[in-house]
Amino acid sequence: MADLRPLRILIVDDNPHMLKIVRTILNAFGVTLIYEALSGHEALEVARNEAIDIIITDYQMDGMNGVELIKSLRDQNRVANPLVPIIMLSAYSEKSRVFEARDAGTTEFCCKPITAKDLLAKIAMIIDRPRPFVRTKVYFGPDRRRHDPSKYRGPERRSDDEAKPNVA
Questions:
Q1: What pTM does this model have?
Q2: Positions of the region Disordered (predicted)?
Q3: Of the four listed, 48, 74, 146, 159, which is most buried by Cβ atoms within 10 Å?
Q4: Degrees (nearest 5) of the Cα angle 12, 146, 61?
Q5: Which overall architecture, per CATH, does domain 8-132 show?
Q6: Per-domain boundaries in the chain
């Protein structure tokens, strides 16, 4: 696992207690450059003005929810780095919500109650196994496929040129 101390992480949650829990976990990992936002609008302002390495956001927030925030963060006209990795936290782990977050462009999804082990695993995935970004007419974000398409040898296999994602 990489040294997490130099990371600049933004935590977004409208619950101050949850902000403190996530901050405490990150501090235990050695992260000290932590920004906090109590709303999606506040988070966008931080993302515009600071060089953030990872964003951890709640799903359910008043005003702008986490999915709306992710869509705004993926808009290159609204923020400097639309490629920033985003971890979605949610107490709602229904498949439809996970897919909604994934389709908005989240990088990882972590269910509440959050544990240090789970959060570290999500951060490790972002650092150790980053996914390329894909841009289509209806989606911009990390490649949603988790498998390695180069290992598929079946009859439906695309040519190598077709299998390459359109990286932004």
A1: 0.85
A2: 140-168
A3: 74
A4: 20
A5: 3-Layer(aba) Sandwich (3.40)
A6: 8-132
